[in-house]
Design goal:
mainly alpha
Length: 139
């Protein structure tokens, strides 16, 4: 970064030196030229950052990692969610029975069933969307 700052300082010094030699009637042209060089430098920096970001995304995709929000739902995720919900159901059921008897147990299991049903429907919708997108590529 220091070398780039030195280049920019040299450009500014050259612009100011040219202004002294040419006079004030060329001020706008010299300023426009200097600002154009700064704009080119900024564009180059933004382009490099964008290329780096895109390359990182391509590496993630090439490695087979799931991108956040991609909606890919795997069997392992569904199985893990089911197992965790059943494991957590044991203490939740005990708490519900102690505090609200049989009614609390029914409410607890209705909630567990509801969470699992919503998770299952979400997975089915994303799987359907993924198949639809795949069939668009086949056309």
């Amino acid at each position: 970064m220091e070398a780039r700052d030195a280049e920019l300082k040299k450009e500014l010094d050259a612009t100011l030196h040219a202004r002294r030699e040419l006079g004030e009637e060329y001020d706008s042209a010299l300023v426009d030229s200097f600002l154009g060089k700064i704009e080119q430098r900024l564009d180059g920096t933004v382009d490099r950052r964008l290329r780096r970001h895109l390359a990182e995304q391509q590496m993630v995709v090439a490695r087979g990692a799931r991108s956040p929000g991609s909606g890919v739902d795997s069997w392992g995720e569904r199985f893990g969610f089911g197992v965790i919900s059943l494991v957590l159901a044991i203490p939740l059921s005990a708490i519900a029975v102690v505090n609200a008897d049989l009614t609390g147990l029914f409410v607890c299991w209705a909630g567990i069933f509801g969470v699992n049903a919503v998770h299952s429907v979400r997975g089915a919708q994303f799987g359907r969307r993924r198949r639809e997108r795949a069939s668009e590529w086949d056309d």
